[in-house]
Amino acid sequence: MSFGTIYSYPHNPRVAKIHAVANLNGLKVEDAPFEFGKTNKTPDFLAKFPLGKAPAFSSADGVNLFESNAIAHYVADSGPLKDQLLGSNAAERAAIQQWVTAAETEVMPPVVTAFLPRFGLVPFDQGADDNAVSKIERAVESLERHISSGKTWLAGEKISLADISVAAALVWGFTFAIDAEMRAKYPGVVAWYGRVVGTQGVKEAFGETTFVEKRTVPK
């Protein structure tokens, strides 16, 4: 039985995050046909999701949500691994939430800035790209310091929504910006990322990550 349906464009790391927590919780979440700019402007879609944003989610019992972190939290909280994924006490929940927030505010914005021109979606701007890559490296360096203090996972003794959220935010980073030279400086982050995306359930949601060998300037 389907737990719910996601509406989004293909290959969206924010959706991979949701599918990963669904898989870990043993919940079936389906992807609806979706065309950005059309599906999300229909009266039916806007009645459920007033901002017209994707990803959006409808549960089988009528819960409608937008914003990927809200959706991921709901899915994580709806299965047997909710305490592992979200924390079993106030301190654990806060630690996980800080990384979920950091993924969205510190990691994803510069990653998207680096990704968009390399995917041909916006013109390339060298200054903006240099700034984005600098911010990406600052985030990765911070992760390295945290992980090198003896952490296997970002928050707690097992994989949680913290790890899945930060890894999802880094997918396009590893694909387009975090090249071999940068990865060599942060082996702890590379090993941690491998643990996250190699976890059963997460692996199926994320698929294979293509690691860029040398960051290039779009033509």
UniProtKB/TrEMBL annotation:
CDD domains linked: GST_C_EF1Bgamma_like, GST_N_EF1Bgamma
Family matches, as InterPro entries: EF-GSTs, Glutathione-S-Trfase_C-like, Glutathione-S-Trfase_C_sf, Glutathione_S-Trfase, Glutathione_S-Trfase_N, GST_C, Thioredoxin-like_sf
Domain (GST N-terminal): residue spans on this chain: 2-83
The GST C-terminal domain, residue ranges: 89-219
GO biological process: translational elongation
GO cellular component: cytoplasm; nucleus
Family in the record: Belongs to the GST superfamily.
Protein name: Glutathione S-transferase
